[in-house]
Each structure stands twice: as structure tokens, then as C-alpha cells.
Design brief:
The chain is of the alpha/beta class and 314 residues long. It has twelve helices and eight strands.
């Protein structure tokens, strides 16, 4: 398999339609988005996926958290069960769509928003726009708004090169040229019963068209992230100690990129006076797969802070 195809299927690894569960489609104003919530205790945790990913990668985290706190996973437009929205996809749009989804689904604040990678942009924008509803944030090896300028140039070039590759995969899927044999093994950390759903999604051209749109919008997403500090808003930053190990073999300067990434992560921590920094020594950027236990622990800590603060301020 070529390096280009390896990159595309790796990025698409979590691009699978969720299995049948308790989730539902909710109309947010002409478009239906999928959301699945489990558990009863507040506040409500909302897990926001990384670029080109959706709820299937986070269902094992939801299952671990549900006995302790109500936890929701959802599919952004064009991914999983959710209907597509044409055009470039940016975190600014996604934040507003998430807000409409939570309202239309009848979910009441406070919310603890946990964003992985690109999801970090979305929840930060959401917090700025709808901050009265947000009790805590959790960044999961989250994107930094200055990363495209500060990481080595090949990182941004790789993302740019990914767009035409993924669009090519859409054409291949449309022509029936993608087979299950081309797909990488389904991670052991994920629900094995969803493997067939994953394979079906990888035959769907809409999957790749949406992914390409999210990659195209990445610089616009970064530019929309608000500056300034978070004050004393509870914040937990979970960082992969070897984030760029996930990209070995893709032509990136891994060691140099890692140094910059760790610096960017420390800057995220510094945004709040009530922040914790949890580091996964051997975890890579695919933290939901490589260290799900640390994510669960970090979210539990954020929930505890949110409960204490919300009760004293409301």
C-alpha cells in the first residue's frame, strides 16, 4: 500500500457509522445531526471528535464515563449518521451547529466540553460564544491556533496534500474501487461489533468528501479560535507524550515537531488559572486508542471541578 493511501485510511480509521444504539437524529434547522447520550448524573459531558472522525472512536470512552456522568457523543455534519452540509467545514460553523444540536436535543447546561485534536478548536469557540453554559473544558491532545505557523512546514504541507488524496478516495469509493482488504486492522480498544459498520462507511464517498472539507477548513478553523485567557474556568489538558509517533513513516520531522507540540500544549494549560496538565508518556495523537484510561480520568477531574464550581456560582 502506498504511503498516500496509508495516510488516508489512517485518517479515516474512525470514520465508521455508529452501530445501532440509543442515539437519535435531531433536526437543527433543515439538517439532521446524530447524538447519543448515556448516563444520568450532571453535568453533561460532550465529546467532540478530531478531524475526519466521529462518535465511533469515542463510544468506549462514553461507556466508561456513563456510570459516573451523563456523556454524549455526536456526529458532525456529513459524518456517521448525520446529514451532510455542502461547502468548506470549519470549527466556527461546527460550534454553532453543536449549540443548535444541544438545544434541539433538549439538553440543559452546564456542559463539560471535551475536544480531541480539531475538536479543541470547536469547544474553545463554543465556550467564547456560549460561555454561560460551559462549566469546564477538556483538551485531548488538542489543536493550538498557532500550530500551522509554528510546527515545521512539512506538517502543514501534509494536510494540504491530504485534501486531493481524500477527494481521490471519494471517487474511488464512488466507483467501488475500495475493498475491505485495503483497510487497516480495527483497533482493539474499539467495539469490535462495529467493524462491519466501519467497512461500510469506507465505501461511502460522502465520508471522504466531508473529511476533505474539514481538512480544507483547518486554517480557517484555527483563525476563528478566540485569543485571551479563560480566567478561572476549570480546564484539563491531556497531552500525548509522543504525539507525532502517530505520523512516523509519513515524511515528517517527528522529533522537531514533537518539541514544538509540547510547547504548544503547555501554552494551552496556561490559559486558565484552574488548569491541570495530564501527560500520557507513551500515548500518541490517537489518544482515544492509545490511552483511553487517561482521558476518562481527565474528564472525571473536570467534572468534579465543574460540579463544585457550578454549585457555588448558580
Amino acid at each position: 500500500m502506498s504511503t498516500s493511501l496509508v495516510l488516508v485510511v489512517w485518517l479515516a480509521l474512525t470514520a465508521a457509522t455508529p452501530g445501532e444504539g440509543e442515539g437519535r437524529l435531531v433536526d437543527i434547522g433543515g439538517t439532521e445531526l446524530y447524538i447519543d447520550c448515556k448516563g444520568d448524573a450532571g453535568p453533561t459531558v460532550v465529546l467532540d471528535a478530531g478531524a475526519a472522525q466521529w462518535s465511533i472512536q469515542y463510544q468506549h470512552l462514553q461507556q466508561a464515563l456513563a456510570p459516573h456522568v451523563r456523556t454524549c457523543v455526536y456526529d458532525r455534519a456529513g459524518l456517521g449518521h448525520s446529514e451532510a452540509i455542502p461547502g468548506k467545514r470549519t470549527s466556527s460553523q461546527m460550534a454553532d451547529e453543536l449549540h443548535r444540536l444541544l438545544n434541539a436535543a433538549g439538553l440543559e447546561p452546564p456542559f463539560v466540553l471535551a475536544g480531541h485534536s480539531l475538536g479543541g478548536y470547536t469547544i474553545r469557540i463554543y465556550q467564547r460564544r456560549y460561555g454561560a453554559d460551559v462549566a469546564a473544558l477538556v483538551f485531548i491532545d488538542a489543536a493550538h491556533p498557532e500550530q500551522w505557523e509554528r510546527l515545521p512546514a512539512p506538517v502543514g504541507q501534509l494536510v494540504e496534500a491530504t485534501v486531493p488524496m481524500v477527494r481521490g478516495m471519494a471517487k474511488a469509493a464512488e466507483g467501488g474501487a475500495i475493498t475491505s482488504e485495503q483497510l487497516p486492522p480495527w483497533p482493539e480498544a474499539f467495539d469490535q461489533s462495529l467493524r462491519r459498520d466501519y467497512e461500510s462507511a469506507m465505501m461511502n464517498p460522502t465520508t471522504y468528501l466531508t473529511q476533505a472539507s474539514e481538512y480544507e477548513g483547518s486554517s480557517h478553523s484555527a483563525a476563528a479560535v478566540p485569543g485571551g485567557a479563560l480566567g478561572d474556568l476549570p480546564l484539563v489538558v491531556i497531552t500525548a507524550g509522543k504525539s507525532f509517533d502517530a505520523f512516523k513513516g509519513m515524511g515528517l520531522p517527528v522529533d522537531e515537531s514533537e518539541v514544538v507540540w509540547q510547547e504548544l500544549q503547555r501554552e494551552l494549560v496556561a490559559q486558565s488559572s484552574d488548569a491541570e496538565h495530564l501527560i500520557s508518556p507513551d500515548g500518541n495523537h490517537a489518544l482515544p486508542e492509545t490511552d483511553p484510561d487517561l482521558i476518562v480520568e481527565g474528564i472525571k477531574r473536570a467534572v468534579a471541578k465543574a460540579r463544585a464550581n457550578w454549585n457555588t456560582t448558580r
